[in-house]
C-alpha cells in the first residue's frame, strides 16, 4: 500500500484527467453523437422498412380478398343473367308454343267450319241432284208405266228400293 | 486446433510441472534460485552471474511497471561496457521556482545533472530530485533519499505520451467512422467499422440493460470513451513498446474518480434516499445503514481502481517473469517451455485486456443505473 501511494504521481493524475475529459468531449462531438445518431437512424429506417413491408403484405391480402369478392360477384351476376336469359327463352318458347297452338286451333276450327259449310253445300247440292234425279226417274217411270203398266210399276218398285239403299 | 492431441497433452503436462517456478519467479530465494544455482554449478559457471541476471530481470520488470521520463525502447552494452539507449526523450515540465521546461535527454538516463534556470535536478531510480550542481544524493538511515522533490511535476511522461497517442488514435478512428456514415448512406466504412459492433454491444448490452432506456443516452459518451480508452491502453501494454499505463495507480484512480463523480452528480432523489434513509427497514436500522451505504459509494469506485490496476500489473509481472525465465534457463527445454508459456499467457492477456475494459465499463454502467433508478422499489414491498 505504501508502495502504491509512493507510486501515485500527481502530475500523471492531472494529465490523465485533462486528456481523458478532453477526449470524452471531443469524441462526443465528433464521434459518438454522429455515430449513435447514424446507427439510430439506420435502425429506425430498418424498422420502418419492416413495418411498411408488413403493411404492404396486409394490403396485398386485402386486395386479394377484394379481388376474390369481385370475381364472386361477377360470377353471381353472370349466373343471374344466364338464369334470366334462360327464363326469357323458356317464356318465349312457351309463348310461341301457346300462340301457335291457339293459331292452329283457330285454323282448325275455321277449316272445320269451312268443311262443314262445304259439306252442307254439298249435301244441299246432292239433295237437289237427288230430287232432280228422282224427278227424272219419276218422269221416266211415268213414261214407261204409261207404256207397260205392270212393267212400270215393277220398275218403280225396284227404283225406289235402290233409292232407299242410297 | 492444428496441434495433434499427443503433443498437446505433453505441453500441458510440462506447463503444470513448471507452474511452481512461475509463481515464485519474483521471489529472490525461491526454488528457481536453488535450481538455477545447482544448474549453474553443474555447468561450471559462477553463481553470481545468474544472480546478477535475476536481479537485472527483476529491476527491468520493476522499471517497466513504472512511469518514465523518456520513451525508452531498448538498450545494450557494447564490448567496452558503454551503455546505448534507444528511444526518444520527452519534455519535463516542473513547477518549481517558476516553470522549468527541458527535455528529459538532459538527464542522460540519470548519469548527469540537469540544469534549468539555476536549479539542478537529478534522475534517481526513475524519480526527479533537486540536487546541487554535483548531483549529490543524500540518504537517511533506511537508505531513503532525503533530497527534495520538485513542487509540482507536470512532465509529459511515457504514460502521458501514450495516453496522447491513444487519444489521437481514437479520435481519428471514431471521427472517421462517424464521417463514413454520412458518406455511405448510413453504412460504416473504413477501419472504424470493426468497432461498430462493439459500440452497439456497449449500447445494447451494457448501457441499456443497466441504466434503462430513459437515461442511458447521457452516459453513452463516457461509457464508450472509457471502454475504448482502457482497452486500447491495455492492448498497447501488451506490445513490445513496454508501456504500462492502465497498470498505473494514478490512471486507474483518475478513471474511478470520474465514474464516482458522474454517479454522484447525476444521482436522483431516490438514490440518496436509499443511502441516507433506507426505505422499508426500521428506524434504528436506517441510522446504522446510512454510514455503511455512504461508505459503499466510495468502495465501489475504489474497487474499480484496484481491480484494473491489479489485473494489469499482475499480467505484466507474470508475463515478463516468464520471458525472463527464458534467459535464466539457458537450455533448450526450459527456454522453449518458457516461450510457449509466455505465448499462451500473452493470448490470455489479450483476453484480459478486453475483459478488464468490459468490466470497468459494465460496473460503471451499473453504478450509473443505480443512481438513476426510479422510485419503484417500495412498490415491490406492498
Automatic annotation (TrEMBL), chain A:
Gene3D superfamilies membership = F1F0 ATP synthase subunit B, membrane domain
Q: Where would one find coiled-coil regions in this protein?
A: 46-91
One Gene Ontology cellular component term attached to this UniProt record is:
plasma membrane
User: Which SUPFAM superfamilies does this one have?
Assistant: F1F0 ATP synthase subunit B, membrane domain
Which UniProt keyword terms apply here? ATP synthesis, Cell membrane, CF(0), Coiled coil, Hydrogen ion transport, Ion transport, Membrane, Transmembrane, Transmembrane helix, Transport
State the superkingdom. Answer: Bacteria
This one is known as ATP synthase subunit b
Q: Which organism is it from?
A: Flavobacterium piscinae
What's the gene? atpF
From TrEMBL, chain B:
SUPFAM superfamilies (alphabetical):
F1F0 ATP synthase subunit A
InterPro entries reported for this sequence: ATP_synth_F0_asu, ATP_synth_F0_asu_bact/mt, F0_ATP_A_sf
What UniProt keywords apply to this chain's record, in alphabetical order?
ATP synthesis, Cell membrane, CF(0), Hydrogen ion transport, Ion transport, Membrane, Signal, Transmembrane, Transmembrane helix, Transport
The record's section on Gene3D superfamilies has: ATP synthase, F0 complex, subunit A
- Location(s) in or outside the cell: Cell membrane; Membrane
Entry-linked CDD domains: ATP-synt_Fo_a_6 (cd00310)
List, in alphabetical order, the Gene Ontology terms for molecular function in this entry. proton-transporting ATP synthase activity, rotational mechanism
Q: Which HAMAP family match?
A: ATP_synth_a_bact
Q: What is this protein called?
A: ATP synthase subunit a
Which organism does this record belong to? Flavobacterium piscinae
Q: What is the lineage of its organism?
A: Bacteria, Pseudomonadati, Bacteroidota, Flavobacteriia, Flavobacteriales
Amino acid at each position: 500500500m505504501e508502495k502504491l501511494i509512493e507510486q501515485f504521481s500527481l502530475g500523471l493524475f492531472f494529465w490523465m484527467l485533462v486528456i481523458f475529459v478532453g477526449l470524452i468531449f471531443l469524441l462526443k462531438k465528433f464521434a459518438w453523437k454522429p455515430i449513435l445518431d447514424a446507427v439510430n437512424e439506420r435502425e429506425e429506417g430498418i424498422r420502418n422498412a419492416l413495418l411498411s413491408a408488413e403493411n404492404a403484405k396486409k394490403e396485398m391480402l386485402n386486395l386479394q380478398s377484394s379481388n376474390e369478392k369481385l370475381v364472386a360477384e361477377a360470377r353471381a351476376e353472370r349466373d343471374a343473367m344466364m338464369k334470366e336469359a334462360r327464363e326469357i327463352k323458356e317464356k318465349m318458347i312457351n309463348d310461341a308454343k301457346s300462340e301457335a297452338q291457339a293459331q292452329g286451333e283457330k285454323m282448325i276450327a275455321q277449316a272445320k267450319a269451312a268443311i262443314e259449310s262445304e259439306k252442307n253445300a254439298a249435301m244441299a247440292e246432292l239433295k237437289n241432284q237427288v230430287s232432280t234425279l228422282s224427278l227424272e226417274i219419276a218422269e221416266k217411270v211415268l213414261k214407261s208405266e204409261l207404256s207397260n203398266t205392270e212393267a212400270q210399276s215393277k220398275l218403280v218398285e225396284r227404283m225406289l228400293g235402290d233409292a232407299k239403299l242410297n | 486446433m492444428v496441434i495433434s492431441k499427443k503433443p498437446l497433452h505433453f505441453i500441458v503436462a510440462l506447463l503444470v510441472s513448471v507452474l511452481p517456478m512461475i509463481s515464485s519467479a519474483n521471489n529472490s530465494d525461491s526454488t528457481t534460485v536453488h535450481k538455477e544455482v545447482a544448474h549453474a554449478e553443474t555447468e561450471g559457471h559462477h553463481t553470481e552471474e545468474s544472480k546478477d541476471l535475476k536481479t537485472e530481470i527483476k529491476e527491468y520488470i520493476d522499471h517497466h511497471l513504472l512511469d518514465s521520463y523518456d520513451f525508452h525502447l531498448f538498450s545494450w552494452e557494447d564490448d567496452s561496457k558503454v551503455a546505448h539507449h534507444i528511444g526518444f526523450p520527452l519534455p519535463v515540465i516542473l513547477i518549481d521556482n517558476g516553470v522549468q521546461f527541458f527535455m528529459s535527454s538532459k538527464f542522460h538516463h540519470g548519469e548527469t545533472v540537469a540544469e534549468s534556470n539555476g536549479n539542478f535536478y537529478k534522475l534517481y531510480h526513475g524519480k526527479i530530485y533537486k540536487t546541487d550542481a554535483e548531483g549529490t544524493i543524500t540518504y537517511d538511515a533506511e537508505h531513503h533519499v532525503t533530497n527534495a522533490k520538485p513542487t509540482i511535476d507536470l512532465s509529459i511522461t511515457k504514460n502521458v505520451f501514450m495516453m496522447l497517442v491513444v487519444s489521437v488514435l481514437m479520435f481519428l478512428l471514431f471521427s472517421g467512422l462517424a464521417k463514413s456514415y454520412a458518406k455511405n448512406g448510413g453504412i460504416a466504412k473504413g477501419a472504424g467499422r470493426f468497432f461498430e459492433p462493439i459500440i452497439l454491444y456497449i449500447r445494447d448490452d451494457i448501457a441499456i440493460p443497466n441504466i434503462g432506456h430513459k437515461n442511458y443516452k447521457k452516459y453513452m459518451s463516457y461509457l464508450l470513451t472509457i471502454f475504448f480508452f482502457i482497452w486500447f491502453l491495455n492492448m498497447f501494454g501488451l506490445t513490445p513498446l513496454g508501456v504500462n499505463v492502465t497498470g498505473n495507480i494514478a490512471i486507474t484512480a483518475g478513471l474511478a474518480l470520474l465514474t464516482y463523480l458522474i454517479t454522484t452528480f447525476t444521482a436522483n432523489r431516490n438514490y440518496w434516499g436509499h443511502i441516507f434513509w433506507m426505505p422499508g427497514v426500521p428506524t434504528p436500522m436506517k441510522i446504522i445503514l446510512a454510514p455503511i451505504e455512504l461508505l459503499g459509494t466510495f468502495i465501489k469506485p475504489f474497487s474499480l481502481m484496484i481491480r484494473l490496476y491489479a489485473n494489469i500489473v499482475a499480467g505484466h509481472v507474470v508475463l515478463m517473469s516468464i520471458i525472463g525465465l527464458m534467459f535464466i534457463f539457458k537450455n533448450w527445454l526450459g527456454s522453449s517451455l518458457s516461450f510457449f508459456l509466455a505465448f499462451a499467457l500473452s493470448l490470455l492477456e489479450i483476453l484480459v485486456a478486453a475483459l478488464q475494459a468490459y468490466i470497468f465499463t459494465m460496473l460503471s454502467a451499473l453504478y450509473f443505473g443505480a443512481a438513476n433508478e426510479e422510485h419503484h422499489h417500495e412498490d415491490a414491498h406492498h
